[in-house]
Amino acid sequence: MNDFLPIPQNARLGFLLLMFVFSGLQAQEPPFPEIARLGRVPDWSQLDAYQSTITREEFFYLLSHCYSRSPEDSKGYLRIQEDRVLILKQSNFPELGWYDLRFRREDGLSEPAPKFWRGPLELRDLPANTTKPLQGVRIALDPGHIGGKWVTWDDRHFTIGADTLPLKEGEMTLLVAKILQRDLTLLGAEVYLTRETNNPTTTERIETLQGEAKSFLLRRGQIPSEGAIVSTAKQMFAISSEIRSRGEIVNRTIQPDLALCLHFDASPWPSGRPSFRSSNHLHLLINGCYSRAEIAEDDTRFEMVQRILQRVYYEELALSDLVSKTMAHETRLPAFHYDGKSGMSVNENEFVWARNLLANRIFFCPVLFFEPFCMNHRETHLRVQEGEYPGLREINGIYRKNIYQEYADGITSGLVRYFRQTR
Description:
Blueprint: H1 9-27, H2 56-67, H3 71-74, E1 78-80, E2 84-88, E3 98-102, E4 138-143, H4 151-154, E5 157-158, E6 167-168, H5 169-186, E7 190-193, H6 210-219, H7 226-254, E8 258-262, E9 282-286, H8 292-295, H9 298-310, H10 312-331, E10 352-354, H11 358-362, E11 367-372, H12 378-386, E12 393-395, E13 398-400, H13 403-422
Parallel strand pairs: 4-7, 4-8, 8-11, 9-10
Antiparallel strand pairs: 1-2, 2-3, 5-6, 9-11, 12-13
């Protein structure tokens, strides 16, 4: 007697069809991960060294207080449980699973989180009455943007008026960086620049990034028109590739205790043409305020978690809190305020804001990101025209240092005060 019941012909066909569809799903390649422009697919095993190095309470505090813009922004990507946090490995392919990061118990011992930078308490004590309060501190200076013939690719230059010099942010930040290098070195610091000329550090060019730009647009569901490809390739060159190249220099070569990202601000002009605006202000940025779209990017989520595990926030906040005050005193600039979406406040200092930028995310050390002086404010524009003069000069009825020295002195005095207090 046959032990199997006969299967009707139509049922057999349905079963075979179901098996065919299932086998097709099994063989389906996972989609390309969601990553930022020119980002790398994360290797989640790199977080293994951070197992049991942070408590649940501290992880939750850092995520909710500074890094995730709101609880909703990280929901679905990080699951905080009693003894661990589960981190989604690939946003567009949940089948890949979750990375399991175990928390340290409140009463448990753990090894320090892996990092190359040193906080003030990890540095040697300073001798009494030293004239070199920054002795042994490794500092990376990142002059924002690019200068020379590359300014047309960078879009951080403009001219207002027929007989005036053009303002080129990449060249202005390099002037500030070289003043800082001189002054901080005299105070004992080991100072390195991510670039020392007006040339880019990346070997990529707009022409070499066309294919990558097209692929990026297609992955994002956008039409890769010729204009969109060129525009995306331009952004990839000036922002993504250039900053990622500097990130390699910072993380692999310099390995500093602190990185200073130097920029000048600018107010938007509604007409689309360069024009003077009434705003002139100052703010400092630390890393944080990740939106849901940013956390959805696998590499961005990985980098955010790594910053949390290294506890970079505490050092960034303490430094920026003090340096912002010396900057405000030196520059006489009022504070700029964000709306809580692209940047958010993390303490009562109105000059300090958290914002997720590529440089302050992928430089794996404490990063202070400076945004003083609106370049299209009349006084800033006038001071740039005056150049790098010695001593003091009357500007609108007040005797001032040249704008580059003033910028540098605001930072230098803050760093000296901070390291004297904390070492």
